[in-house]
Amino acid sequence: QLQLVESGGGLVQPGGSLRLSCATSGSILSINIMGWYRQAPGKQRELVASLSSGGTTVYADSVKGRFTVSRDNAKKTVHLQMNSLQPEDTAVYYCHAGYTGGREFWGQGTQVTVSS
To answer: Is the separation of the CB atoms in 109 and 6 below 8 Å?
Structure first.
């Protein structure tokens, strides 16, 4: 059972930056896809950014050019650098790991609030 623990959330003013981290309990070398989702109040969970083991990245249109996803295989972590944050980025952000074949794991989530 893979455990994912997010950190780095918090309160930031519009235009500010945050860096989310997702620490895993095991090696991420065999994980096909790792990424971040978010869920705002009253909305469905949506993909923010993902990174495949082959290096392919996918970003939601709303965050392209502002967010960057990266993974550190040696440290077994995945990061989400978020710049130029806006109030609409306010949500609970979840780390996700997906293996080939469909097995997947989720973190507990970390709150990001963008407000002046």
So the answer is: yes
- Average pLDDT over every residue of 23-44: 90
- pLDDT, tens digit, for every residue of 47-72? 999 999 889 999 999 999 999 999 98
Strand order in the sheet with 77-82: 4-7, 18-24, 77-82, 67-72
Q: What mean pLDDT value characterizes the chain? A: 94
Strands, DSSP E only, in the chain?
Answer: 4-7, 10-12, 18-24, 33-39, 46-52, 57-59, 67-72, 77-82, 91-98, 104-106, 110-114
Rounded to whole angstroms, the Cα distance separating 76 from 26 reads 7
The angle formed by the CA atoms of residues 53, 55 and 109, to the nearest 5 degrees, is 65
Residue 39, C-beta contacts closer than 8 angstroms, at least 6 positions apart? 45, 46, 91, 92, 94, 109
In the predicted model, is pLDDT for residue 87 greater than 90? yes
Contact 97, 36 (CB under 8 A): no
